[in-house]
Amino acid sequence: MMTIYSLIDDMGACGEHGLSLLIALSNGQQILFDMGQGERFKQNAEALGMDINAVQLAVISHGHYDHGGGLATFLASNTHAPVYIHRRAFDKHYSIRKDGKHMIGLECPKEMSRLVLCGDNVQIDEHITLFSDVHGKRLLPTDNHRLLGHDGVSIDDFGHEMNMIIRDGDISVLVVGCGHKGIVNILERACEIIGNAPTYAVAGMHLKGSTNIASVAAELATYPSIFYTMHCTGLEAYEQLRAQLGEHIHYLHCGDQIQL
Predict the structure, then answer these.
(1) Distance set, CA 125 to CA 31, 35, 87, 165, 167 (Å)
(2) What integer is the mean pLDDT of 215-240?
(3) How many helices (H) and strands (E) does the chain have?
(4) Where are the beta strands (DSSP E) in the chain?
(5) What is the DSSP string of 112-149?
C-alpha cells in the first residue's frame, strides 16, 4: 500500500501557496515530491510524525519558488538523499502580475553534489520514472501566457517541468506538480510510458482562471484513473471538475493523507 501525505498545499491552516508531497511506498521507500517555498514542509512533516531525514530521494518538479524554494531546508535536514531536478530548472523564470514582472525562479545552491540534473526522461529504478518530454499541445492552461522563460520575454515552454510515474505492486501513480504542459497531454505521455492509463493521477492542473475547464474535464472522463488534485488547480476549477467527474476526482488539502 502506498501512502501520500500532503505537506504543502494552498488550502488549509498549515499550508502556503505551493506544493509538497511525501510518498511512502509499500517497500518502505520514502520520496519527497516538491518542497514548497521554504521551511514549512519540514514543520508539517514533523507535525505528522514524519522524519525528513528518512526520505531516500527527492524530486523538484520544475523551477518555480513555490515548488523548490525549500531546497536549502531539505539539504540541511536530510544528509543523504539525492535531489532530482531538470537541468533547466535553475534558469531564470518570471511571472507577469498586475504590478509588473516578478522573478519566480529558484536559487541555485552553492553545494550541488547531491543534485541530479536530469534530461527529459530518467528511469531512477524499476519503480520510478521521471519525464518531461511531453509534446502534446492540447488544452494548455490558459494562464501560461503570464509565465515567462529565461529571457524574460518569451512564454515559458516548460521544458524544465518533470512528472513522475511510480509503479508500486499492482498500481501505477502519475504525480504532477503544476501541469503547465496540460494535464491532458501529460496523461497521454504517461500512458505511452506505462502502456496503459495510470491507476491514479495526483496532480496540480494549473486551472485557476482557465477558460477550458469543461473541455479538460471531458477528456479526463475518458480515463479509468482516479484523480487527486491540489494547489494550482484551485477550488473553483475543482468544483467544476467534480461536477463532471464525480467520485473520480478528489481534493488533497494540506495535512491530508491518502492510501492507494
Answers:
(1) 13, 22, 19, 11, 10
(2) 97
(3) 6, 17
(4) 3-8, 20-24, 30-33, 57-60, 83-86, 94-97, 100-103, 115-118, 121-123, 128-131, 147-148, 163-168, 171-176, 200-204, 226-230, 249-251, 257-259
(5) -TTEEEE-SEEE-SSSEEEE------TT--GGGGGEE-
Runs of H (alpha helix) within 26-166: 40-47, 65-68, 71-77
One of 3.40.50.720, 3.60.15.10, 3.30.70.1170, 3.90.1150.10 is the CATH number of 3-259, namely 3.60.15.10
For residue 84, the cross-strand partners are 59, 116
pLDDT at 119: 94
User: Pick from 167, 193, 155, 121: which is nearest to 23 by CA?
Assistant: 167
Q: Is the distance from CB of 213 to CB of 28 less than 8 angstroms?
A: no
| Alpha carbons 132 and 213: distance in angstroms, whole number | 23
First and final C-alpha spacing in the chain:
6
What pLDDT, on the 0 to 100 scale, is given for residue 12? 80
Helix locations, 155-209, DSSP H:
183-194
H runs (alpha helix) in 160-212:
183-194
Query: Given its phi and psi angles, is residue 191 left (phi above 0), alpha (psi -120 to 50 degrees) or beta?
Result: alpha
> Cell numbers 514524519 correspond to what residue?
50
**In whole angstroms, what is the distance from residue 217 CA to residue 121 CA?**
27
Q: Please name the amino acid found at residue 156.
A: D
Task: Enter the pTM of the model.
Answer: 0.97
Q: Is residue 74 within 8 Å of residue 85, measured between CB atoms? A: no
